[in-house]
Automatic annotation (TrEMBL):
Segments forming domain Exonuclease: 7-188
Name of the molecule in the record: DNA polymerase III
Keyword entries, A-Z: Exonuclease, Hydrolase, Nuclease
GO molecular function: 3'-5'-RNA exonuclease activity; nucleic acid binding
Organism of derivation: Streptomyces rubellomurinus (strain ATCC 31215)
Length: 195
């Protein structure tokens, strides 16, 4: 059944990370989900959200805190990954709405972690139908040879970096600004707004 929606979820995750290889037994785990809801018809960002997620197989390293600003104490107050997925589905219609991220990392990390945790993938199937790689769309729209990082893309588009880079909530907000830029350029795929 096709569900028409003018709302698009823009997702950016931060995960545990290290300067080099992870400690034995540790894996990358989502610790923050940033989500901005975009109304593609009204051409505006309508809300921004943040879900902190408690890691179970790794800890926040000093390197990760330096990069994201997130601390182990902060993410310990977060919800489980299963609860975070439930929130995405129930509060933000993740299984129904189309969604986007900057590149494929976020989609792949959700798929890996969902499988490892035995939690249903929150974004619906098939993934190609529900997810749009905003970095690939931007690269094509601007005729670039190399795919830029989000902060560089903002510079190319003449948009400011709002908030802290590598903070999920702020990055989702900034990616949403790039989506709006692509919508204004008529470069955003129509199939990315109708599921």
């Amino acid at each position: 059944m096709r569900h028409e929606s003018s709302l698009l979820n823009v997702i950016d995750v931060e995960a545990t990370c290290w300067d080099g290889q992870p400690p034995p037994g540790s894996v990358n785990e989502i610790i923050e989900i940033g989500l901005t809801v975009v109304d593609v018809l009204a051409r505006r960002r309508v809300s921004r959200h943040r879900v902190l997620v408690r890691p179970v197989r790794s800890a926040v390293s000093d390197f990760c805190t330096e990069l994201t600003g997130l601390t182990q104490a902060e993410v310990e107050r977060g919800v489980t990954f299963a609860e975070a997925c439930r929130i995405l589905v129930e509060e933000y219609e993740a299984g129904e709405r189309p969604w986007t991220s900057w590149g494929e990392y976020d989609r792949r990390q959700f798929a890996r972690q969902s499988q490892a945790a035995g939690v249903a993938y929150p974004f619906g199937y098939p993934t190609e139908r529900t997810h749009t790689n905003a970095k690939a769309v931007f690269t094509a729209a601007y005729g670039l040879r190399k795919k830029p990082g989000m902060d560089h893309a903002l510079q190319i588009a003449g948009l400011p970096l709002e908030g802290r880079h590598h903070r999920g909530e702020d990055d989702a907000w900034n990616i949403a600004a790039l989506v709006l830029d692509l919508l204004d350029r008529r470069a955003w795929p129509v199939t990315a707004t109708v599921v």
